[in-house]
């Protein structure tokens, strides 16, 4: 299965990609995570991406395509993948279509996580990632036992640098201007399935599974 998760920052792409990985045995390919890993290792690519990421702007299409190509060549992506955060504009969507046509493995579906914009700020400012398990959590919405489990495992609840109010505003603007048009792009291609992303994580996960089965 080859799918794209499309949605605004904070709509739940990472959360549900992790669930789909567990359920389907295919990898999550998150350009945000790949870029943050490049940044952490202080690679030339990571350092080039840093200014844009800190400001909440899109990193250049060329850089992102480079990391996506490298990632999709790995063995674990042979039987499918969940693209999380890519593509994010028309150029990237066309690059992806070309790349997948070359290897004769077109997309099966694009799931849009549809959500009211007002709720996103709270989801993003409350987001924490467990340093031990990598699980995406939220100080406002996650069950206390999940937050406690991370600490009990010796982990820390990490805050993402770009989850500050100013950068969040920019990220949401970028989504509106550059990424939202992909909804029509994929609707026209007959690949779009809209999932209501309001409600608990479990409710949304069930809707996503139903959308994939439909
Ligand atoms: P990226 O890392 O992709 O961030 P994003 O798209 O802004 O998305 P997020 O990771 O913030 O949100 P999400 O939808 O995954 O939500 P999550 O599941 O965490 O990109 C970061 C930066 O990298 C970009 O700004 C850009 O600079 C660069 N970049 C990345 N890809 C690029 C590309 N293709 N081209 C160019 N540049 C690129 O959920 C959020 C919170 O809500 C969590 O705390 C979670 O626990 C909680 N939550 C989720 N679902 C629910 C629910 N149903 N109920 C209650 N809480 C929930």
Structural account:
This protein is α/β, with parallel strands linked by helices and 214 residues long. 51% of the residues lie in helices and 15% in strands. The chain is built from ten helices and eight strands. Strand 5 (127-130) and strand 6 (136-138) form a beta hairpin. The protein is globular and about 45 Å long. The relative contact order is 0.18. The model has no long low-confidence stretch (mean pLDDT 95). Bound molecules: BIS(adenosine)-5'-pentaphosphate. BIS(adenosine)-5'-pentaphosphate is lined by residues 7, 9-15, 31-32, 35, 52-53, 56-59, 64, 85-86, 88, 92, 123-124, 126-127, 136-138, 141-142, 162, 171, 199-201, 204.
Task: Give a quick account of the main beta sheet: strands, pairing sense, barrel closure.
Answer: 5 strands, parallel
Which spans of ≥5 residues are poorly predicted at pLDDT below 50?
Answer: none
Measured as a percent range, the helix fraction is 40-55%
* Radius of gyration based on Cα positions: 17 Å
Taken from the alpha-carbon principal axes, the silhouette is: globular
* Count of extended strands: 8
Are any ligands bound, and if so which? Answer: BIS(adenosine)-5'-pentaphosphate
Sketch the topology as an H/E string, one letter per element. EHEHHHEHEHEEHEHHEH
Distance between the termini: 14 Å
Portion of residues in beta strands equals 15-25%
The structural class is alpha/beta
Placed side by side, the strands forming the largest sheet appear as 2-3-1-4-8
Overall pLDDT, averaged? 95
Helical segment tally?
A: 10
């Amino acid at each position: 299965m080859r799918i794209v998760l499309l949605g605004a920052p904070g709509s739940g792409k990472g959360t549900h990609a992790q669930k789909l990985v567990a359920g389907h045995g295919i990898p999550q390919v998150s350009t945000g995570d790949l870029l943050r890993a490049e940044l952490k290792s202080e690679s030339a690519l990571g350092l080039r991406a840093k200014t844009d990421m800190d400001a909440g702007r899109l990193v250049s299409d060329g850089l992102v395509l480079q990391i996506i190509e490298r990632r999709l060549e790995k063995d674990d992506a042979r039987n499918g993948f969940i693209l999380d955060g890519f593509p994010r504009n028309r150029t990237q969507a066309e690059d992806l279509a070309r790349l997948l046509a070359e290897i004769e493995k077109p997309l099966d579906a694009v799931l849009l996580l549809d959500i009211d914009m007002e709720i996103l700020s709270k989801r993003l400012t409350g987001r924490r990632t467990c340093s031990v398990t990598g699980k995406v959590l939220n100080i406002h919405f996650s069950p206390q036992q999940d937050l406690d489990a991370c600490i009990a495992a010796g982990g820390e609840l990490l805050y993402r640098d770009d989850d500050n109010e100013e950068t969040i505003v920019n990220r949401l603007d970028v989504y509106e201007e550059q990424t939202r048009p992909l909804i029509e792009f994929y609707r026209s291609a007959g690949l779009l399935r809209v999932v209501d992303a309001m409600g608990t994580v479990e409710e949304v996960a069930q809707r996503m599974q139903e959308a994939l089965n439909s």
